[in-house]
Amino acid sequence: MYTEFPEVISVEPSRTYTTATTRSWDFLGLSYQMPNNLLHKARYGEDIIIGVIDTGIWPELRSFNDKGYGPVLLGFNFVRLKPAVTAYGLNIRYMDLFSLSPSFPPTCAIKVERLVQVGQDWNLSNCNRKIIGARFYTTGFDAIHDGVDVLSMSIDQPGENSFGALHAVQKGIAIVPQTVVNAAPWVITVAASKIDRSFPTVIALGNKQQIVGQSLCYQEKNSSSRSIFRSLAFGDLCTKDNIQNAGGSGIIYAQYTTDTLEGTATCNGIACVLVDLDTGNKIVEYMSATSSPVAKIEPARTFTSKELLAPKVAAFSARGPSIYYADIIKPDIAAPGASILAAKGNSYVTGSGTSMATPHVAGTVALLKALHLEWSPAALKSAIITSGGNINPNKAADPGLIYDIDPSEYNKYYGCAISRTTVSCNRTSVPGYHLNLPSISVPDLRHSISIPRMVTNVVDVDAVYHAAIQSPPGVKMDVEPSILVFNARNKFHTFHYKGTALLEASLGIVA
């Protein structure tokens, strides 16, 4: 009916859009609307203290409004902005990004967020490798002094430097760093994955061909969505100003992957759409075939669906193995880290990387610690690893069996000497796969090998477990005993993995 009026340009059906500000927590099953999940069972992580290492921020920012929360600890101090908001879900009154994802409030919030500063005078003027290295090495000692339960480290540090954190692990502090280079067996190394959310943008070319890209571009109702793209002069940079000076109203750029959308967020004021290389070639073919290429870009939409391939490891995230320890599988777990809405200054941006995935794991560890105060860092790590390749907080709360490790075992297998003030480690001849980890990696399987593991039953008093074996190609694997029976008197059991190479030549790494 309304389409018949000459003043009406177009009519679109009304739709209800769900908020996607904290979609990653919903995707992990930690929504307020799910009363039986880990979030509620752990009382929102009440009284768990999380330490965050990164460049400084200001607690006055609206992202960290603590209205409605109880008193904080003495010496309470914020350090990190984006990961802190991601991991600890402060009760922000309103979050928005280009009107695409408004929210009242985030769907996951840990009740008592105690973020304490680790290291002193941590600011941008101190950001050189020597000072950061010194701060990083003393992190474990600062965390112990501050009473931290979980340490979230969204920073790049070579694996050899992680020995400074071993002192904290010995005192019961779980360490969660980003990237596969943090390969020490006493930390939870995180990879980045995608979630079931996308920002589809329809591009209608002048030849009536419609293609779909990804964008954070949002246009007001009274703005035109018609855009003419013109060529820049040879040698000109493809910047917002150059595009507008050339008479263009937007940018369509192609890259290998559409896993990250940060580039589109910088195109404030003009349409900016990301497409993959195949789609980009189609656009180039169209532009080459006409003298006046025309395109119409629709406003971006927020789309969440089980039909999207998720979780999926992001293209930019390293899949391992570790270059430091071939006999230890890294990374340990994947978590949402692609196009995650997070705070920056007094606004919000999307961030991608393992630095965005790390706080998801740190927040989950905090909830698990609140639910199981007696669990060690190794037990928390075991519960997370054995419950899924992509982190599954609710399953991690009830893992059945855990692989626990006394911190002194790290000293034995890695030649680490821990004093009150220092930690020094040198690799020994004892292989790392003899550590009681929930995974096994044999770098050079030439002969038969027997690897012990000890498990602890942490759920039902009476339980029976049967081994299910799926051997890697070229390897025969057995488990002895293949049946473990637990009761009130027998909460611990030891078993052995036995592997034999079926080929005379070395098969390389078997994991």
TrEMBL record:
Residues 142-388 form the Peptidase S8/S53 domain. Gene3D superfamilies: 2.60.40.2310, 3.50.30.30, Peptidase S8/S53 domain. SUPFAM superfamilies: Subtilisin-like. GO terms for molecular function: serine-type endopeptidase activity. InterPro entries: Peptidase_S8/S53_dom, Peptidase_S8/S53_dom_sf, Peptidase_S8_Ser-AS, Peptidase_S8_subtilisin-rel, SBT, Subtilisin-like_FN3. GO terms for biological process: proteolysis. Residues 435-496 form the Subtilisin-like protease fibronectin type-III domain. Keywords: Hydrolase, Protease, Serine protease, Signal. Pfam families: fn3_6 (PF17766), Peptidase_S8 (PF00082). CDD domains: PA_subtilisin_like. PROSITE patterns: SUBTILASE, SUBTILASE_SER. Belongs to the peptidase S8 family. This is Uncharacterized protein. It comes from Paspalum notatum var. saurae.
